[in-house]
Amino acid sequence: MHGTPFGGGPLACRVSLEFLDILDELLPAIQRVGGYFHVRLNELARKHTVIKEVRGFGLMLGVELTVPGKQYVLDAMAENLLINCTHETVLRFLPAYIVTEKEVDQAIKILTKVLSKKHEPAG
């Protein structure tokens, strides 16, 4: 079950309508920066064998690892990069729609550092 205290309320609905009004303006940047992020993650995958696959569309991206990702999430958070791990091995990226290529580069720099650490599989 998933829900929020304000989901479906009048304020949330109004904000959603306002967002839909500006979405057309944002889409070109979302597609451009999302494509750039995807390319940069694929470059990272060629350097780190722990990355099994990069997938996603726009700014909704995931990196499947060959090992559990929890420690990578914690290490990234310690470096001020907020990511999530789903299905135990998928690092999930959901940046704000106003993210820039420069900010993507900062994230890649942190990910490079985090992925360079050797983590022992739990067990």
Oligomer: single chain
Helix content: 40-55%
Distance between the termini: 30 Å
CATH class: Alpha Beta
CATH-derived architecture: Alpha-Beta Complex
Radius of gyration: 16 Å
Major beta sheet summary: 4 strands, antiparallel
- Mean of pLDDT: 90
Q: Structural class per helix/strand content? A: alpha+beta
The tally of beta strands, per DSSP, is 4
CATH-derived topology: Aspartate Aminotransferase, domain 1
Strand order of the largest sheet: 1-2-4-3
Percentage of β-strand residues: 15-25%
Per the principal axes of the C-alpha atoms, what is the gross shape?
globular
Describe, in plain words, how this protein is organized in 3D:
The protein has 123 residues and is α+β, with helices and mostly antiparallel strands. It has one domain: Aspartate Aminotransferase, domain 1, CATH 3.90.1150.10. The protein has three helices and four strands, in the order αββαββα. The chain has a four-stranded antiparallel sheet, with helices on one face. Strand 1 and strand 2 form a beta hairpin. The longest helix has 38 residues. It is globular and about 50 Å long. It starts with 9 loop residues before the first helix and ends in a 7-residue tail after the last helix. The model has no long low-confidence stretch (mean pLDDT 90).
Task: Name the features.
123 residues, 51% helix, 16% strand, globular
Question: Which secondary structure elements does this structure contain, and how are they paired or packed?
Answer:
Elements: H1 10-47, E1 51-57, E2 60-65, H2 70-78, E3 84-86, E4 90-93, H3 101-116
Antiparallel strand pairs: 1-2, 2-4, 3-4
Helix pairs in contact: 1-3
